[in-house]
Amino acid sequence: MILLTPDEMGAADRLAAESGIDSYGLMVKAGYAVAASALKHFATVRRAIVLAGPGNNGGDGYVVARALAESGMDVAIHALGDPDKLKGDARTARFECPIEPQSLEAYLPQAGDLVIDALFGAGLARPLSGAVTALIEAIGRKGVPVLAVDLPSGLSGATGAPLGAAFHATRTVTFMAPKPGHYLLPGRDLCGVLEVADIGIPMRIVRAAQGGKLSVNSPALWRAALPHSAAGAHKFSRGHLGVFSGPAGKTGAARLSAMAGIRCGAGLVTLAVPASAEAEVAAHQTAIMQRRLDEADDLRDWLADRRLSAFVIGPGFGADARAREFVQALAERPTVIDADGISAFAEAPDELFVTLGRFAPHCVLTPHQGEFSRLFPDIAADDDCGKVEKARAASARAHAVVLYKGADTVIAAPDGRAAINANAPPWLATAGSGDVLAGIIGGLLAQGMEAFEAACAGAFLHGEAGSRAGEGLTAEDLPGHLPPLSAFS
Questions:
Q1: Any idea where the domains of the chain sit in the sequence?
Q2: Per the annotation, does 189 bind a ligand?
């Protein structure tokens, strides 16, 4: 499912009009789609209250009001501003609606109401007025359900962040394509159940308007890139993943990554361990191979084996000069740089970026918010940018795929492609979960997937494993619940 920013949706509307499509006809279809949702999902409400704004979102609201009145529902309209000053299609919708609007301030929320929020759509770029904010708070206190038109008013369609106050909708109906704000938090929660209504803009026009190559992460993005084993496959043809362990007492994170890598299909996985951890790791692993590796010279000797196809470094490794040296040696090969592998460069991020810039963008950085802030402090501090824009900027700077972790993980590539992952259950927020994710991505890289597709597939598979394991899971449970890759091919 592609996503359109508010600007891109505006471009789609303009292209549709330029192609000869009746813009008012699109407004009517949008309004009737919202009315259909209201009748289907809120059939027992006593009356519908349409809050109509001063633009085209308000025009949609007048169409909704007319359609619901035609169905026999008791409907009232409360308008923000002077409805007689509406222009274009919104003006037409206002005068074709037989219900006379009242002022916004005249509405007093009551039990049994359904509020149709048609005040502002996804293009809102400024905080709401005090009067609207007060009404949002009054509706929330009364517990009146809200059906949002396009996007809950007060929510940024680009970033998913409230611009001051915002409605908390029970359901949201948007048109043709979702916006980033429907999937980025806290917008995803504020939208409630999301419906996407096809109002008749041809998909060729929607795609023509999409400049940013942004999607919801789904198998459609990476299915064609999944590894397939031929009948004559052997362990080395399925890829050899190397995972670097920390010292004794700190091997658990790397062991989780290694197990995830082999569970998602890598033919061999080797844990590279310092001497102090050899006995500890050997006591815990059976299918995972083990190699003693202490210093960078040992690593360079190991890298002479070209059958090693990908690496994971960072989980439990230690954020020190040795980590920086190892990452620099690994950068010429597909590598997941996670946790300590990222934090080791907190004082010298340009050192990492210069190193990665020497090679094709085949490495994946997997920072959580704190690690992202340490590696990209200026990008993280830019309050005008949402998570997608931050991930894209970071990816371009690092010359690597950036998987910006969180409940609304964003994956971005240096070429501008980006995806928002939305299938992760909340119980994935547990210690070690990120180490498993790093191992999944590493296992996919080892099998030959390109970095962006491997990161997207890894995030999705991680979410699926969390859903299968269920509430109360621990990180150790996740590798055993990974779905087979064949389920998506």
A1: 6-211, 219-488
A2: no
Alpha helices in 22-55 (DSSP H): 23-41
Q: How far apart are CA 368 and CA 406, in angstroms?
A: 6
443 is known to lie in a ligand binding site: no
59 is in an annotated binding site: yes
Please tell me the distance from the alpha carbon of residue 82 to that of residue 324, in angstroms, as a whole number. 62
Amino acid at 196: V
142 belongs to an annotated ligand binding site: no
Fold of 6-211: Rossmann fold (3.40.50)
Residue 81 annotated in ligand binding: no
Check: CB of residue 441 under 8 Å from CB of residue 454.
yes
Terminal-to-terminal C-alpha distance of the chain: 18
Q: What is the pLDDT of residues 433-458, one digit of tens each?
A: 999 999 999 999 999 999 999 999 99
Is residue 246 annotated as involved in ligand binding?
no
> Which pLDDT score, from 0 to 100, does residue 244 have?
98
For residue 162, give the H/E element and its range. none
pTM, whole model, 2 decimals? 0.94
Residue 347 to residue 262: CA distance in whole angstroms: 34
Q: How far apart are CA 383 and CA 225, in angstroms?
A: 35
User: What's the half-sphere exposure (Cβ side, CA atoms, 13 Å) at 438?
Assistant: 32
Q: Is the pLDDT of residue 228 over 90?
A: no
DSSP assignment letter at 129: P
On whether the CB atoms of residues 356 and 399 are closer than 8 A, the answer is yes
Q: Is 58 assigned a ligand-binding role in the annotation?
A: yes
CB 156 within 8 A of CB 183: no
Q: Does 294 appear as a known binding residue? A: no
CA 280 distance to own-chain centroid: 37
| Residues 12-22: tens digit of each pLDDT | 999 999 999 99
Q: What distances in angstroms separate CA 407 from CA 122, 222, 293, 429, one per listed residue?
A: 22, 21, 35, 8
Is 435 annotated in some ligand binding site? yes
Q: How far apart (Å, rounded) are the C-alpha atoms in residues 474 and 59?
A: 50
Q: Which residues of 72-83 are buried (b: 16+ CB within 10 A; e: fewer)?
A: ebebbbbbbeeb
CATH top class, domain 219-488 = alpha beta
Q: Which of 287, 290, 234, 233 is nearest to 262 (CA)?
A: 287
Residues 277 and 246: beta-carbon distance below 8 Å: yes
Helix (H, G, I), strand (E, B) or coil at 31: helix
What Cα–Cα distance (Å) separates residue 331 from each residue in 308, 315, 357, 460? 13, 17, 9, 25
H/E element, 419: strand 418-420
